[in-house]
Amino acid sequence: MRIRGGCSGGHARVVETPCPDEEAEHLRKLALSKSPEDSPWPFPKYYKNGSANTQHRSKFNVGPNGGVENMTDQNIDYWRKLAEGGNAKAMYNLGLCYYKGIAVAKNYEQAYDYFFKSAENGYADAKHNLAICCQLGRGIPASQVAAKEWYIEAAEANVSESMNNLGQMYQKGIGCDVDEKEAFKWFKKGADLANGDAMYNLGLCYYHGNGTRQNLTEALEWFQACAIASGEAKPKAEYLLGAMHFHGKGMPELDYKESLFWYRRSADHGYPPAQLQIGKLLVGTPKTPTKSPQAMVEGVRYLQMAAKNGEAEAYNMLGYIYSTGKLGKPDNEKSFECYSKAVDLGWGPSVPFLAHAYQFGLGTEKDIDKAIPLHERAARAGYSASMNALGGLYHDGTEVDRDFETALSWFEKAGDHGEAGAQFQCAIHKMYGMGCEANLREAKEWLEKAASQKHAESIRLLNEHFGGWPPPRPPDD
Prior knowledge:
Layout: H1 24-32, H2 45-48, H3 73-84, H4 88-100, H5 108-120, H6 124-136, H7 144-156, H8 160-172, H9 180-192, H10 196-208, H11 216-227, H12 234-247, H13 256-268, H14 272-283, H15 293-308, H16 312-324, H17 332-344, H18 351-360, H19 368-380, H20 384-396, H21 404-416, H22 420-432, H23 440-451, H24 456-465
Helix pairs in contact: 1-14, 3-4, 4-5, 5-6, 6-7, 7-8, 8-9, 9-10, 10-11, 11-12, 12-13, 13-14, 14-15, 15-16, 16-17, 17-18, 18-19, 19-20, 20-21, 21-22, 22-23, 23-24
């Protein structure tokens, strides 16, 4: 196993869209069903011809005494003697020991020296590790240009990990100018040697059309190849396979069953976005909630995994589930904790809920001084519930000084965003001149907006004072 490092930057997710409401329950049933051991999707042609070995070569093997990880003071002296005699692999393994601190104190300078000696004696994997040292500044001042040169030497000696890292350097312009075609070339070389991470990056090139013409069928095939190979990108490839089947990309039509198979595999391999996606499909939404207790429990389990792995949206969904008692009785303390963590992670939709919790003391002590800034933050971001809440606070005047003009300003903002309750309040202020001059025409307009959303009090006022609702149809000509 080589020392991992280099260009491991993130990649854009496929944007998810909810499935049609009428299929939501069907999807949840599929998600709950046990997946087969192997995907029914056929292996790519690349694997059918038997030309690829999906296992990376181990770099820890040091002979009959076991692996480097089992090195002792006694047998490390033996390898030192071999290295002194010019054995390139012994030099390489000693470099690994110093790099990782196995049987010796960690020393990057010593590691670099042994890797360099091994590389001078033609050991290709040592060249890859020299590139890592140059890239990360371990044992030598960092130099992306030098790293690139070592990667090229290792790649030309068929080290597939170097091919992948070299592709990423060209793709991102690290140590060189950005060159998408050159990046594509090196990803392809690494993928042809069954490097799972290179397969994934090659799939992304085909998916986005980077360095080559966009080809979703090829992207699908290379993600599939990565998913059945080894490598750090394996769960990402499984997730993208799920997304492509979910949306029918790279295939004649979408396939929810296959999509859920890959989402679940990615989730079970620890990929947070997949854990979030499976959780969302299982628990549903406020408009299409699951009717299955089993689906809810299973969905919450995946959401909890995603949340622990830093998915802010998962915390937001868990906050809603706990507050509404979807698992039994409402648990405001857990809800507050989840909304707080979601806000800390920058999830905007949780801010109004956290403000609401502070305003009414739900799961925490009531604290209006914390509630108002949170409501204002949410309102500035366009969340109408917080606009409406601020209007109510200034209208009531129990928690803050009463200010009808400020209240009306917030109600109007919320009303413009479609909040029926706020539209009703705008009408009341206009009818009685609260924070403004009385204006019955504008009051009626606000009532009609609210009534169009079936707001009962607005309909009642229109019937009692403004000629009824709905308004009479104009006579035909």
